[in-house]
Amino acid sequence: MRLLIQGGTIVNEGRSYKGSVVVEDDCIAEIWENGQAPRGNYDKTVDATGCFVLPGVIDEHVHFREPGLTGKATIESESRAAAFGGVTSFLDMPNTNPQTTTAGALSQKMLIAQRDSHVNYGFFYGATNLNIDSFRTLDPRAIPGIKLFMGASTGNMLVDNRQALEDVFALAAELGLPVMAHCEDSGVINANMAAAKAKYGDDPDISHHWEIRSEEACWRSSSLAVELSLKHGTRLHIAHVTTARELSLLDDAAVRRLVTMEACPAHLYFTKEDYLAKGALIKCNPSIKTEADRAALRRGLTDGRIYAVGTDHAPHLLSQKQGGCARAVSGMPMIQFSLVTMLELVDEGVLSIEQLVELMAHHPATLFRISHRGFLRRGFKADIVVVRPGNPWTVTEENIQSKCAWSPMQGHEYRWQVVHTFCNGCQVLDNGMLNGNFRGEALAFR
After folding, report:
1. Biggest distance spanned by C-alpha atoms of the chain
2. List 205, 312, 383, 430, catalytic entry
3. Quick check: 160 and 181 in contact, CB under 8 A?
4. Sheet strands (E) in 129-273
5. What is the DSSP letter of 362?
6. Three-class DSSP category at 11
7. Known catalytic membership, residue 347
């Protein structure tokens, strides 16, 4: 199969230029710059005139809910949403049922994805207080890293024992595996919730969520994670950073050599003022915080403190999103709208499109050492997304692909559209039409 994508503006490795991409089977064969004419016979030619041609997005942080929570989402449904959003690879978190904290559970997820996923996939292995020795049984080429919940989580996945934390960081460093940490201090959160309930009742209004899942809760946990990273020489990636104060941890050069941080589109787009209109639809952990925090996160996209953007895509049934701080569940589906939301920030001058590609494709591939992905390079897998500017469309229930059938972006008009998504050289999405027969591949690491 020979494919030619021609006439678009290629954005890759800090440059934007008119050009064409030649794909042979599942890999990129050639990249031609403007003025060069790709010759030969092609099975298919895609005219990308007026469009931008980007490496496929690697969403390093999703919760696809399968196995065990399939009333909310499945790997099939959420990978479909990924394809519609220009995401060609995802890294899924371990808090499913069963949790991905044993080799058997990891194998089960891989088999489900092999059968059902429309795009490429990888799965984090989860740490608990009791399973640390099992890290030695893992194939480091098969997983992106260890996921560590240093704040409240489902089941037994909260690691709050100091010795267990020391052991996680020490063994991960020994094995050369990065630790991706959810950093919130449960003691601070529990005290804040108790105080809020005493003041406002058993289910405090959602407008207080940012006070309960507070800056202090994030700071204490992130500071501890950084301390452990430095002590053991462990590569640490702090997930979904939400505060300016946490970003200040990277002012230390020694920290920056070992620690990276992720931001999520929800925290880059919303502020606590949006609870008034959106209610619990934008309730997530860590919480959406102040306008000043959002401004700091946006600056971090361009000054190097934010290394990657992932969605923390976490679908729930709409009925579960009703109520306030205590009753409504936390999490939202964002994978279908992450790329177009970030492109909106490009239009606003928050970052350049070249920086967007670094944050959403190059850096996730580099951080987790994903083999032959994340860049438009000869010999790399042909994971490519074509996006068109100036093409308004509105998010409605009808065009939401996630199984939960709602989005905090519902009613929002975007001016960028994902036109084509190619995964391993196959056109998975063509102008809103999904190739439902295609299946992605397991990602290879290190």
Report:
1. 73
2. 312
3. no
4. 146-149, 179-182, 236-238, 259-263
5. I
6. strand
7. no
Nearest one of 281, 330, 335 to 313, comparing CA atoms: 335
Confidence (pTM): 0.98
- Angstrom distance (rounded) from CA 402 to CA 415: 21
Q: Comparing C-alpha atoms, which of 77, 119, 57, 4 is closest to residue 387?
A: 57
Q: Is 263 helix (H, G, I), strand (E, B) or coil?
A: strand
Query: Which domains can be identified in the chain, with CATH numbers?
Result: 2-53+378-391+414-434 (2.30.40.10), 56-367 (3.20.20.140)
CB atoms within 10 A of CB 367: 21
Read off the tokens for 129.
């207080």
pLDDT bucket at 156, cuts 50 / 70 / 90 = confident
Rounded to whole angstroms, the Cα distance separating 97 from 3 reads 41
What is the pLDDT of the chain when averaged over all its residues? 97
Provide the pLDDT confidence category of residue 190 given band limits of 50, 70 and 90.
very high
Structure tokens at 301: 């996209």
Contacts of 374 (CB under 8 A, 6+ apart): 55, 58, 361, 362, 363, 364, 365, 366, 380, 383
Q: In this structure, what are the phi and psi dihedrals at residue 413, rounded to the nearest 5 degrees?
A: -100, 120
